[in-house]
Amino acid sequence: MAKYRATLNMEYIKDAAKGFQWGVEKAAELGYRYVEPMVHTGWDLLSEVDFFHSFSMEEDPLLMKEICDRAGVRVSGISGHSPLMKPEAAVPRLTRAIVFADACGAKFVNTDDMIKPDWMDDETAWQMMRYTLTKARFVAERHEVNVCIEPHGTFSCTSEGLLRIADLAPSPWINVNFDTGNFYLAALEDLYEGLDRVKDRVVHMHAKDISEQHSADERGLVTGTPVGCALGEGMVDWERVFEVLEPLDREIFLSVECGRVDEAERSLEFLRKTLGDKLIE
């Protein structure tokens, strides 16, 4: 029987225009015990002045851990999205995120394929992704950190495409981060049937709900979105989601991806009510 841990993707403070430390402390105040930070390379002006939550990998990873430890939360995983079809960017970024995650005690780094450029044919795209993931695989295996492929791009928003990407560099450390909102919005395959087909590879989930208006505006037109609404207030049938995952004999992190503090608060309340003692706190 599947068990769950709730974590909070730091995108939840994007609307508040606050920095990383503020977001970690607020997550703890709301009752979360884990967070999923976003990382970037180089230096970002908005992050440096605490107007944005992303954390630079130029900093010491133990500084991230120290900030979280002080607030009483842990880093569950890293949002290290790196365009797999663009190895010149993805290889250094993704491998660095894996090392960063390990230093923080996290076991997941989430990434995706990206949108295929017009000039790139499919064969080239698959070759580029194979190269990127093969390079990442060696680092992931050394550090025992899962590289999790997320539905968010040209090939990853069907169960077949998602599994094909995850199998490009066969390894027990390359798995799936299933994003319910992205898969729903892409509308290339039934959400619950698709989840059922990939469930054996799901080790992490972006728990993202999609409002009725958001669905009407973008469903079938996009392959993903940064954030959704509060869980239980949108189009995703969470009872069906958890029914699909029920047979899995492992813990799965549910990383809440919403856009506001109040939505994060209501999402945790929803998970507690819906999952009961299946939610480990």
TrEMBL record:
Keyword Isomerase among record annotations: yes
Residue ranges of every copy of the Xylose isomerase-like TIM barrel domain listed in the record: 24-273
Taxonomy, superkingdom: Bacteria
Keywords: Isomerase
SUPFAM superfamilies: Xylose isomerase-like
InterPro entries given in the database record: IolE/XylAMocC-like, Xyl_isomerase-like_sf, Xyl_isomerase-like_TIM-brl
Pfam families attached to this UniProt entry: AP_endonuc_2
GO molecular function: isomerase activity
PANTHER family: BLR5974 PROTEIN (PTHR12110:SF53), HYDROXYPYRUVATE ISOMERASE (PTHR12110)
Protein name, per record: Sugar phosphate isomerase/epimerase
Native species: Saccharothrix longispora
